[in-house]
Amino acid sequence: MEQGAQSIYRAVAVLKAVAERNRTGSSLTELSAATGLTVPTVHRMLRAFGESGLTFQQSNDRRYFLGPLIYDLGLTAAPRFDLQSLYKKTTEDLAEQTGDTVFFSKISGDDMICVSRMSGAFPVKALVTDVGLRRPIGVGAGGLAVLSAMPKEQVVRIVDANAEKYPHHGKTVEQVLEQVRDARARGHVVRNIADLGVTTLSMAIRDKSRKPFASISVSSISPRMSPQHIETVLDLMRPVIQKLESAIDFSYSMFAA
């Protein structure tokens, strides 16, 4: 690590921890535990972030959220990195064809972030994640699909980096690795979430350099996901993946690390 870069990486880690919990906000102690940094260190960073607009602290419960400058910076970056023009029509069509809920997620550091959710006509919706929600790669079906398309050494690095986070999402490193092995054997992910009664299918999307950086997932209630329906959905997903990959002319995965 270059001299002086450590503080930058620490600051990025804190911002990512805030983003991961942005729906409900984070306490100072939660951010300290999530990053492995001391409470005084995190507090100093948050004070500086707050003064610059990167975060803000809610007055009623003192929890931290991403600030307005993050939104402004995102708007500036969107024209170059926004994939909406690629995935919007194809995911809408897939939701219409399957009747189920379709998610488009992409890598962001060692996390996956959901950037799109489209619901089909089936009346019971499987809303297993929200747009903007960040989760460690390997927690959800989309992250498992991306991991299963990566070289083993990269899988080990990412899983090791997220090892302390998995228990907070009800998973272990061993479970993640077993699910990755299962996805490699199948060529896609089939994830059954028993406590929600939901089954999700997922496939990785590769960029111009043929490296996985995103995924398409289709979710529905488990009784609907019969073997026949699963095959139908997979048959519809494959050409969608091919269409997206043929349209991508940028190596998005270069920003994954």
Provide tags for this entry.
alpha+beta; six-stranded antiparallel sheet; 257 residues; two-stranded antiparallel sheet; 46% helix
Quick one: biggest sheet?
A: 6 strands, antiparallel
| Residues in helices, as a percent range | 40-55%
Strand arrangement across the biggest beta sheet: 5-4-3-8-7-6
Average predicted local confidence, pLDDT: 89
Poorly predicted residue ranges: none
Count of individual beta strands: 8
Distance between the termini: 14 Å
Per DSSP, the total helix count is: 9
Order of helices and strands: HHHEEHHEEEHHHEEEH
Structural overview:
By secondary structure, this protein is α+β, with helices and mostly antiparallel strands. Helices cover 46% and strands 19% of the residues. The chain is built from nine helices and eight strands. Strands 5-4-3-8-7-6 form a six-stranded antiparallel β-sheet. Strands 1-2 form a two-stranded antiparallel ribbon. A hairpin with a 4-residue loop joins strand 6 and strand 7. Helix 1 crosses helix 2 and helix 6 crosses helix 8. The longest helix has 21 residues. It is globular, with a radius of gyration of 19 Å. The two termini are 14 Å apart. The mean pLDDT is 89.
What secondary-structure arrangement, pairings included, does this model have?
Blueprint: H1 6-20, H2 28-35, H3 39-52, E1 55-57, E2 64-66, H4 68-81, H5 84-98, E3 101-108, E4 111-119, E5 134-136, H6 141-148, H7 152-161, H8 173-186, E6 189-193, E7 198-206, E8 212-221, H9 227-247
Antiparallel strand pairs: 1-2, 3-4, 3-8, 4-5, 6-7, 7-8
